[in-house]
């Protein structure tokens, strides 16, 4: 078993996923929850 620091995003694959999601949402300028849902679902 490997010891991981309390916060080690390099060793936690979900952190990469969240990074890509946030990058995408910034790119489509989703400022509200509804905007985010609509952009993810593909409707404008």
Q: What does this molecule look like?
A:
The mean pLDDT is 81. The N and C termini lie far apart (47 Å). The protein has 2 helices and no strands. The chain has 44 residues and is mainly α. The protein has one domain (9-41). It is elongated, with a radius of gyration of 15 Å.
Give a concise summary.
The protein is an all-alpha fold and 44 residues long. Helix content is 55%, strand content 0%. It is elongated, with a radius of gyration of 15 Å.
The mean pLDDT is: 81
Query: Count the strands?
Result: 0
Compressed to H and E, one letter per element, the order equals: HH
Beta-strand content estimate: under 5%
Domain module tally = 1
Share in helix: 40-55%
| Span between termini | 47 Å
Low-confidence segments, given as residue ranges, are: none
CA radius of gyration is: 15 Å
| Biggest pleated-sheet summary | none
Number of helices: 2
Label the structural class: mainly alpha
Blueprint (SSEs and pairs):
Layout: H1 13-27, H2 33-41
Spell out the key features of this protein.
elongated, 0% strand, 2 helices, mainly alpha, 44 residues
